Each structure stands twice: as C-alpha cells, then as structure tokens.
Amino acid sequence: MEHRTAHHAAYSEASRYVTNTPAHVTFRFENPVICKLICGDKVMGINADRPFHYLPGEIMFVGPGLDIHVGLQKAVPDAPIICDCVEIEAGRFERLVERLNDRGGPGRAPLSMQPRWDGYCTLPSEDAAQLQFDTLMA
Hints:
Elements: E1 2-8, E2 12-19, E3 24-27, E4 33-39, E5 42-46, E6 52-54, E7 59-62, E8 68-71, E9 81-88, H1 90-103, E10 120-123, H2 125-131
Antiparallel strand pairs: 1-2, 2-9, 3-8, 4-7, 4-9, 5-6, 5-8, 7-10
C-alpha cells in the first residue's frame, strides 16, 4: 500500500510517498521533478534506460514527460520506503537552478548547472547533502 501526502502551491506540488507493500509503479510528471529518497531502497528506471538502485539520501532530477519506473520490492510494513518529491513548473525550476548555482558547490565556488529537459540525473548522498534539499522551497 502506498500513502501519499501532497501540498499544493501556485507553481509546485510537494509530495511524500510512503510505501509499505512491495509494488512496481510507473509515474509520468508534466513538469520537472526533484526527489530525495528518505529511507528504503528502490530500483528505478527512466524510459527504456537500464534500471539502477536509488538509495537513501540521494537526489534525482527527472525532466518532464519521462516514464519513471519504480521497483519497491523491499517495502514492508515495519520498514516502509519513503520518498519526497517536488514537481515544479519549468520556469520556476529554472529559477531554482539559478539559486543552486548562486549557493555554490564545495568551497562555495559558483556552479553553472542548467536543466536538461529530456533527461535525468542522480546525485550521491554526499553531494546531495550540500544542496540542502529540505530548504530549497523556503
């Protein structure tokens, strides 16, 4: 069983997905989405690309209109898989990327990231922690 809690705003939607029963689901978002796996282990696949493990603390960006295949085989009632996702309008997402670039990377040097709308990427938990995902929408 999957439980979803969502908070809607004018240009975005923040959701928490809690899954406590093994499942396989497919999502497709109309806008870019950024997700952070809080706990558990997922096997992810984007469109027809090779599946990969998505681990706690990692952040993933997926461009709009791509099929996101999610394997939740390890979900159990005592150890649910929890994932936070923010779907945000493309124009607002570009401004969010500007904020990340301004925030800088290791040693706080400016970054020059640009969204690629036809793809996806993941950040390992060490790099993802520096982005302070929990504060991006503040």
